[in-house]
Amino acid sequence: MKILLKNVHLPEECGYGLQSVNVLVDGNFIAYIGKDEPAERADRIIDGKGNLLSTAFYNAHCHSAMTLFRGYGDDLPLREWLDTKILPAEELLNEQRVYYGSMMAIAEMIKNGVVSFSDMYFFLDATARAVGESGIKANISRSVVSFDPELDVLTDTRIAEGVDAFKKWHKAYDGRLLVDMSVHAEYSNVEKCCRYVGELARDLGTGIQLHLSETQSEHDKCVETRGVTPTEFFANAGVLDVPVTAAHCVYVTDSDIQILAEKGVSVAHNPVSNLKLGSGIMPYGKMKAAGVNIALGTDGVASNNKLSVLRDMQYAALIHKGNTRNAAETNAADMIRCATLNGAKAQGRADCGRLAVGYRADLILVNMNSVNNIPVFSYDSALTYSACEADVLMTMCDGRILYENGEYTSIDIERLTAEAKSVFEHYFD
Questions:
Q1: Cα–Cα distance measured from residue 19 to residue 367, given in angstroms and rounded to the nearest whole number
Q2: Quick one: DSSP state of residue 113?
């Protein structure tokens, strides 16, 4: 199907400034961008009415089914939050609950302009089905924990679940669904397991998702007990020798940052979650200067309460200015890149994340005529500093419109919310 988006404005890197242009989508890809109308005839024409057409967002770190725990355990530090609230609640998870938790998360992300998410959780079949039904993209992974130094990695059920998911789901739904391996964190794994998962990911030709140096105590305890930082631990175990997305990285040394850069690790910056849990602020400027690929993640809603990359982008754009007392520490164009292209790169999606001919049509139309966006002197500035989730008028993934003017095209939202509420309300019964 060919869709022509007329009279739209683009982010500044596209080179059109404040001029309006036309964009043709042909099937899964962007086929034309220009001030003239393309020669090809479109099956559908959408008048953009001078609004902003941007690359959609990529959520580089998420636990989607944790929508089950939205608002559960608020205002607690990470370890107490995990030990007293989240881990006991996760013992009650099952296939049905993860499916509805994932579907509700996906519906929220689509509404907020997200077309792809990196997920680390359990019951991967349930999340995979939700991805397939909804039309979104995802990199899913089975979180592995291990505490026994004598662990038999060949019979461990967690590792086996991850491998089974890879065999069953990797590149499913025309490549929309990818499967990574995962080790939860340094503090929740023995070296033997980490080393094996790293080798497994290399052999399978896939990446790894993990948490890294989220809190000061996590970082310091690793140095105390292992004699190395968490980053050094993973590097020594060979984990960083494959494509890795490391979430958080709040407490990393200058040496750690160099390792991350040299190993090509993508860092998923989760500013809202880190702020809410009182964990701290990631050293964005140092990572950027070192050449680290910085993407944005929401984390799960239990530690964020919203699945909005737009909101995390706006927090990231502001907190580093205040933390360093330097207004130039971040800029709008870089923040948009973190939310789009860098996230696609972290997910290993080379033909995604850029509004350019030949790239996949992962697009959002954002209302520039809302009162909070007028006037517009820079479309990058408007998206980064003044737009809100309600301004997302359309979300397109691989050329397919999933959300338009308040309506879902792939999800029966009324049925979903009714069924999900029943599951959520009886979760602890």
A1: 16
A2: T
